Amino acid sequence: MSAVVKADPDGKLPTMTVTTAYCAVPQPVTNHITNFCQTARIAHELGHILSLELAADILARMQESIPPKTLFKSTITLADYLAATARDPNARLSPKQQTLLALDVATAVLQFRHTSWCNTPWNSKTIKFLLEGNGSLPTFAPYVDQSNSQVVLNNPKIHTQVTKATVLEIAILLLEILHHKSIETWATENGQQKPTTFWERLEAATGWLEHSSDKLLPDHLRPVEACLAQCVRGNLSWDFEFQELYCENIIRPLRQLVSPRPMGY
Fold this sequence. Notes:
The chain is mostly helical. The protein has helices at residues 36-45, 56-65, 78-84, 95-112, 156-179, 183-189, 198-210, 218-230, 240-258, and strands at 2-6, 15-19, 29-32, 72-77, 127-132, 143-144.
């Protein structure tokens, strides 16, 4: 199936021409598209792929209607940002920004876990920020630099390994964001080798958590504890039961810290 978006004769709405490639004689069908997400969802359920082509006149009109915004000249990884601001408290995230970023990461992993955008565990080197034109101030709306390749996991052991690796890296990311340093820096400061393997990183994260009890809030500690607890389970699958526990023990505590509290609390 292919689709071509072209300008509508009256200039109000673009139209989509859908051609089914598997027909003996392709029959283009033109419809007004007012909800592209709904159309894409239906196409996905039918097992079709949409290939869109925007006509030049539509792009020109879109460009004219979009007001100029801040130009972003470069990017910075979360790892590099933490390293660059380690000795400059004024350049660090505020406590609220730290919690919001931790919440963004935790919720995004939950949303994208079953898609090709989360086929390998995210870490501080794959999470990036845009830098403004002067190259000094990052926008605190993170995005992930991830190759979009579909990974199909049929082996339960592989499911367990990947899920454990995912929640371990979430725990490490939360510790890194909340302490504003990398796990490698923490390991070096505490006379340990830089952790690379799963078990080395798990050991380092567990030790870091133990040293954080008097530095982080209980609602910061709880999500990290919940992630690390899953890493030692025999079998672990990103099923509905686990997602409920994830929402209750990881997302909810972080959200409580940034949600407005009722009067009297």
